[in-house]
Amino acid sequence: MRPETIENYLKTIYNLSSNNTAVVSNQKIADKLSLNPATVTEGLRKLHGLKYVIYEKSYGSRLTTSGSKLALDIVRRHRIWETYLAKELGFGWDEVHAIAEELEHVNNAKLINKLASILGNPTYDPHGDPIPDAKGKIQKSNFIKLSETKVKGNYKVMGVTDHSPTFLKYLEKHQLIIGATINVKTIEDFDNSIVLVCQKKEVNISPKAAECIIVQSI
Amino acid sequence: MRPETIENYLKTIYNLSSNNTAVVSNQKIADKLSLNPATVTEGLRKLHGLKYVIYEKSYGSRLTTSGSKLALDIVRRHRIWETYLAKELGFGWDEVHAIAEELEHVNNAKLINKLASILGNPTYDPHGDPIPDAKGKIQKSNFIKLSETKVKGNYKVMGVTDHSPTFLKYLEKHQLIIGATINVKTIEDFDNSIVLVCQKKEVNISPKAAECIIVQSI
DNA sequence: ATTATCTTTTTGGTATGCCAAAAATAATAA
DNA sequence: TTATTATTTTTGGCATACCAAAAAGATAAT
Ligand SMILES: [Mn+2]
Ligand SMILES: [Mn+2]
Ligand SMILES: [Mn+2]
Ligand SMILES: [Mn+2]
Question: Any idea what the CATH number is for the domain that residue B48 is in?
Answer without folding.
Answer: 1.10.10.10
